[in-house]
Design brief:
Its EC number is 3.5.4.28, 3.5.4.31. By secondary structure, this protein is α/β, with parallel strands linked by helices. It contains 16 helices and 17 strands. The strands form three sheets. Strands 1, 2, 3, 4, 5, 14, 15, 16 and 17 form a nine-stranded mixed sheet that branches.
């Protein structure tokens, strides 16, 4: 253990400090100290200032919170942002997105799209994200150099995809990537079978065995629409979640994305297995997929996290905005104004996300010993005043424009709203180039 009197690397003095754990707590006149990339001190301002520190930073008008956790997305799909809007899910997917992916997705596409997504997420207060997309080995390189934290879900489908001929090749490459990154401090590899309707039982059984052997998570789109459930009943004679339970996939490492259709039996399976649900409200709204019953799940004891989904169906990676939508939608769905209050909404975007990804011992709350993954929100703006409950002002009266600073493992990746490791103008130029190429404006396309 380090000497308690050893100097802190950085002492932060925000107006408000929201640790998330314990729940509902807002600390005023407190400070947070960082040493060797970890939270070393949370104390009153007076006490903290007596502690030796190499750097002291005042954060007036700012709320310091755990970095946001975007628990589901498809990072490189930023380059398909706005390509096929205002369409139902299967039309959007089968007639537009899958053909576009077949035509355009390669290693360069994934490199550029993932970098664009990382930059957008950092500027939105996201310190950790989950990615399910092709060429995950390319995405891992971008994650490594950027300094952000991530769960990489190796995509698995029962037909050829960019970079793989079949599901067996996807699994072989996934295991190799897991071995390459198993000691990486910021990247965790998981399996990402696309959905029950696109992966057969034999493949799911292989994934179950590998996940158990490697102690790896599984993330999957499940019961995203009523049509998906109806077709599963016709084809398999059981609901998708029941089928996954029968095959042994559910458990603490299973992340069910969307879950807009939840029966009493589904709820019992989620509770019994301790599986997590990842709620993507804006994508579900835009694709008219349905409404995840967040409050019902929460009250039953299910861990509910939040994700933006990909920029092709959202169309942004703004988790703060997503959380506001989730809080408002939960009230309408539950028919109760007390459903998913602001403090629980912030918990869903931080600690619940970390728990879903199996990272809650490391991130998701501000506690001594945890990694210093932090975000500072400026809530001193005209549109945020007066302030009675700073967390309510953050969730209901703020946008991602109020994100000022972000640290991952104590390293500052965003300072005064500016990226410290990435060239924003270069990223914009690359994105514009892809827009010209995909829309056919470049000669020869």
């Amino acid at each position: 253990m380090p000497d308690a009197n050893e100097p802190l690397d950085l002492l932060l003095l925000p107006t408000w400090l929201v640790p998330v754990e314990p729940a509902g707590v807002v600390l005023e006149n407190h400070a947070l100290g960082i040493r060797d990339g970890r939270i070393a001190l949370i104390a009153s301002r007076e006490t903290a200032l007596r502690h030796p520190s190499r750097e002291v930073r005042e954060l007036p008008g700012m709320l310091l919170a755990p970095g946001l956790v975007n628990a589901h997305g498809h990072a490189a799909m930023t380059l398909f942002r706005g390509l096929a809007d205002d369409l139902p899910l299967m039309t959007w997917l089968q007639n537009h997105i899958w053909p576009a992916e077949s035509r355009w997705v390669d290693e360069i596409f994934v490199r550029d799209g993932t970098e664009l997504a990382i930059a957008e997420q950092l500027k939105s207060g996201i310190s950790c994200f989950s990615d399910m997309y092709f060429y995950p080995e390319v995405a891992s390189e971008r994650i490594h150099t950027s300094g952000i934290r991530a769960q990489l879900c190796v995509p698995v489908l029962d037909f050829p995809t960019p970079g793989t001929r079949d599901s067996d090749e996807s699994l072989r490459k996934g295991v190799a990537l897991f071995d390459d990154l198993k000691l990486h401090p910021r990247i965790k590899v998981a399996f990402g079978p696309h959905a029950p309707y696109s992966v057969n039982d034999d493949t799911l059984e292989k994934i179950r065995v590998l996940a158990e052997e490697l102690d790896a998570n599984i993330q999957m789109h499940v019961q995203e629409t009523a049509c998906e459930v109806e077709q599963a009943l016709e084809r398999h004679g059981e609901r998708p979640l029941a089928r996954l339970s029968r095959l042994g996939l559910l458990g603490p490492g299973f992340q069910a994305v969307h879950m807009t259709q939840v029966s009493d039996e589904d709820l019992a399976l989620l509770v019994e297995s301790n599986s997590s649900v990842i709620h993507c409200p804006e994508s579900n709204l835009k694709l008219a997929s349905g409404f995840c019953p967040v409050e019902r799940l929460w009250q039953a004891g299910v861990n509910v996290a939040i994700g933006t989904d990909g920029a092709a169906s959202n169309n942004d990676l703004d988790l703060l905005g997503e959380t506001r939508t989730a809080a408002l939608l939960a009230k309408a769905v539950a028919g109760s104004a007390t459903a998913l209050d602001a403090h629980r909404a912030l918990r869903m975007a931080t600690l619940n996300g970390a728990r879903a990804l199996g990272l809650d011992a490391e991130i998701g709350s501000l506690e001594p010993g945890k990694s210093a993954d932090l975000v500072a929100f400026d809530i001193s703006g005209l549109h945020q005043l007066p302030i009675y409950d700073p967390v309510s002002q953050l969730i209901y009266a703020s946008s991602r424009d109020c994100v000022k600073h972000l640290w991952v493992g104590g390293k500052q990746l965003l300072e005064d709203g500016r990226l410290t490791r990435m060239d924003e103008e270069e990223l914009k130029d690359r994105a514009r180039g892809w827009s010209r190429k995909i829309s056919g404006l470049d000669a020869g396309q």
